[in-house]
Specification:
With about 375 residues, the protein is an alpha/beta fold. The strands form 2 sheets. An 8-stranded mixed β-sheet has the order 3-4-2-1-5-6-7-8. A 6-stranded parallel β-sheet has the order 11-10-9-12-13-14, sandwiched between helices. The longest helix is centred in the first third of the chain and has 16 residues.
Length: about 375
């Protein structure tokens, strides 16, 4: 009797899966969940050279990409197309902009195509255009048409579509059309790593002042979209009212944000090892998600902050859908003195703060890594 054939799965991520950004961690968490299953798993991404290698029983395929944006997005999808035509996979799960290849792909018999939208690029670019003057808006407006076209194919061709939030599903259906087999699955969090630590212990480990109140910003993406300027703005007000306040900034690119880092209350950490990140969440009193546009609701870092017992403060336009104002977090939209007073009021009210954190942890336990992984795998293989 012949042994049963292993199911062959290909994940098309585009970006480096070993990069400690949101999408890289998303893929690694998914692989971590699936590693106990007897699947033959491959990950396709783009880098500086063409190479293949194995790591922890997963095959990684790096395809060389060197063209400037947005030409790279077009050519990269054709490289993906060429690769998958030469290989036989049972399930192909592409992500974000790397699903345009479906427009030209003839699906094989008994093959399943799944695409995951982490946001809607059209609305992402639309939010970005708000920061520019009229001339730049006109010059950059073709990006809207480009994003519309490049993200459309999976909505027509994929057998199943996964969205990371209701917002993403709503925006996709508004922009393109409603369709069957589309659902949202909120991003899970590793509750074994992100949990409540004894603050004095983790502060001592990170050499932080025991008497200080710490705010935290974590983000490797564009500082304007992620709202670093907003976080610094409200932190400036907090510092003016409490000289013991400090803001820890992790991940922001110094070359891009150097002009924002001159405030004396800022502790800047450009790169922090992934294994140390839970301790920074554990030492922080308040976490800021001040984004102008997000797909995830919650974003990975917001869920990690909630699991770690931080008071989560979100911008209204980040639309962190699981956050209920003054119940399990705080939602603000002005980022000045008025909103700083709201944050301080909760930080000073120990009973209210503990109640909100308790509700926050209760909420986030509903989307643990295991719960998320089970829902995701049910879509892939169901």
């Amino acid at each position: 009797m012949e042994p049963e054939k292993k199911l062959k799965i290909c994940f098309i991520l585009g970006i480096d899966p070993f990069f400690d950004g949101g999408m890289g961690m998303y893929q690694r968490n998914l692989l971590e969940y699936l590693k106990s299953c007897d699947y033959e798993m491959s990950v396709v991404y783009f880098g500086k050279e063409n190479k293949e290698f194995f790591k922890e029983n997963v095959k990684y395929i790096e395809l060389k990409s060197s063209l400037p944006y947005p030409l790279d997005q077009i050519m990269d999808n054709f490289k993906i197309l060429k690769y998958i035509k030469k290989n036989d996979f049972d399930v192909i799960n592409s992500h974000a902009l790397w699903g345009a290849w479906m427009q030209f792909y003839k699906k094989r018999k008994n093959q399943t195509l799944v695409h995951t939208y982490h946001g809607v690029t059209y609305y992402f670019f639309k939010s970005h255009l708000e920061r520019f003057n009229l001339i730049k808006k006109v010059l950059l407006s073709p990006l809207l048409a480009f994003s519309y076209l490049v993200e459309k194919p999976p909505m027509k061709k994929a057998d199943k579509v996964i969205c990371v939030s209701r917002r993403v599903q709503r925006e996709l259906e508004k922009l393109y059309c409603k369709r069957k087999n589309i659902e949202f699955i909120r991003t899970g969090v590793d509750l074994q790593k992100f949990k409540i630590y004894e603050k004095s212990r983790v502060k001592r480990k990170l050499k932080l002042d025991q008497e200080k109140t710490y705010g935290l910003y974590v983000g490797r993406g564009g500082y304007w979209r992620k709202g670093l300027d907003r976080t610094i703005g409200i932190s400036k007000e907090l510092y003016s009212k409490n000289k013991n306040y400090r803001l820890i900034i992790i991940g922001a690119d110094r070359m891009k944000v150097g002009h924002l880092l001159k405030e004396e209350f800022i502790l800047y950490k450009e790169v922090v090892p992934r294994e140390e990140i839970p301790f920074y969440f554990g030492s922080a009193d308040v976490f800021f998600c001040m984004s102008r546009y997000e797909g995830g609701a919650p974003t990975l870092v917001t869920s990690e902050a909630m699991a770690s017992g931080c008071l989560v403060v979100c911008s209204k336009d980040s639309e962190q859908e699981i956050i209920e104002d003054k119940k399990n977090g705080l939602i603000i939209e002005e980022f000045g003195e008025k909103d700083a007073e709201k944050v301080l009021e909760i930080l000073k009210d120990k009973k209210k703060k503990e109640e909100m954190i308790k509700n926050s942890i209760k909420t986030i336990k509903e989307i643990s890594l295991e719960t998320w992984g089970k829902k995701y795998s049910d879509v892939l293989f169901g």
